[in-house]
Amino acid sequence: MDYQLNLDWQAFLQNHWQKRPLLIKQGFRQFIDPLSPDELAGLAMENEIDSRLVSQKNGRWEVSHGPFETYDHLGAKDWSLLVQAVDHWHLPSSALMKPFRVLSDWRMDDLMISFSVPGGGVGPHLDQYDVFIIQGKGRRHWRVGEKMPMKQHCPHPDLLQVDPFEAIIDEEMMPGDILYIPPGFPHEGYALEDSLNYSVGFRAPNARELFSGFADYILANELGSYRYSDPELTFRDNPALIQANELTTLRSMMRELLEQPETLQDWFGEFISQSRHELDLAPPEPPYENDEIYELLKQGEELNRLNGLRVLRIGDQCFVNGELMDTSHIHATDALCKHNKVDAQLLGDAIDDVRFISLLTALVNSGYWYFND
């Protein structure tokens, strides 16, 4: 399915992105669900897939986590099944991510799909990331409030909610409608009938994650091994006092690592190209040889990228799933970054370089790209 988004991106970026929520009526015209509720329920039975059931009865909230063995205990109202990273496991669903790539691949996270019966939802809450919520089968009532400081509480240890709020958007969504919600705007949605919702979420690392990831990279690569020194040390009256100039020197030691462009680029490429969710990896058996990859490409075969694989470019370097693609053929690796399918034409003369074919063979044998059977 080729989903065409009915949206003026320039106006959206200027007026709404990270500024104001927006209801896009019939953002996808004549919307067709890429999967059924039964297929979603089947995915939630798999060990590798992150899923949860959220329900309420008489104001009491319950949350359980998959994999699930049965749904026979569920009633006809007031529950939702939510499954993360469905785009990693279900090819037709991954097509819903493509229209949003204009906002940059590195910021995109995953596709969460929920199925709700009447009254089903997760209650009023906040998200700290941008999200586009696409209405599929059925109808759902959505309310969005103004961004303001709000106290959060936990009606269940695995559920974070906010108090009731006054709505600035209060609408019933039909199939093909899309609701964009920036970070920090309270919102709640509950199903009016059996319904499917598709949430395209965006990645927004906080400073703590960045510092933690950078520190791990420094340790793994044995960087920053130089020690503090103070050849201009002077006598002090208070031996317990750490002087301001000493703190300045320590800060400079730390900032020096951050201010090395190559170090920062290498780290961030590895860090941000890693998926936060499991991938449906299936390395070929037996593994391919270099000449097999070369011959298949020469015969016109296409290489398909694994669903959910993060392939990103910074400067003249390309990264895949936390690894640098070490080659001088930037045109070819850029094609791997930009396109979900590549062939000999897109890869160009790189395929005549045995070193590039060796790299490509390693990527295929890792399960990152594959040929159709």
UniProtKB/TrEMBL annotation:
Names of required cofactors: Fe(2+)
MF term (GO), any: metal ion binding
Domain JmjC: 92-219
Gene Ontology cellular component list: ribosome
InterPro entries xrefs: JmjC_dom, NO66-like, ROXA-like_wH
PROSITE patterns listed in its UniProt record: JMJC
Assigned keywords, A-Z: Dioxygenase, Iron, Metal-binding, Oxidoreductase, Ribonucleoprotein, Ribosomal protein
Pfam family, one: WHD_ROXA
Signal peptide from the UniProt entry: none
PANTHER family: MINA53 MYC INDUCED NUCLEAR ANTIGEN, RIBOSOMAL OXYGENASE 1
Protein name: 50S ribosomal protein L16 3-hydroxylase
Organism: Xenorhabdus koppenhoeferi
